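Continuing the batch. This is chain 6 of the set; chains 1 through 5 are on the previous pages. Same settings as before, nothing changed between runs. Recording input and output for traceability.
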Amino acid sequence: MALHQFKSRRTTKRYFYSPAMIAVFLLAIAFLARATSSIYGKYSFSKNRLDQAKSQLAALKAQQGDLSQSIAELSTASGTESVMRTDFRIVKPGESLAVIVDTATTAAATTTAPETFWQKAGAWWKGIF
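Output for chain 6:
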């Protein structure tokens, strides 16, 4: 009886350690590793998208708070009047509107000399280093 069990174990061991079975096991491990890698890639992509969605949600909630504050401000008569005065330059009857233009800054902005070739080349050279 013991000899039969020993031969049976030896046959089973020889079968499982045969090159064909080892190749099958390695293929199964490779298949499972590839599937796991694929799932992990999808998981990390989904996690990044979730983080982006959460940050967008926080930005939209902040924007909603700003908009609700603006709506509350515009619902009052003084808020509407101030917006109309600044955006559309509307005045009440009997008032006058004075627009002050700073000529020094507008003249300086329009009279800037164009850059020479050497100035552009120097800026390009500094951009490299």
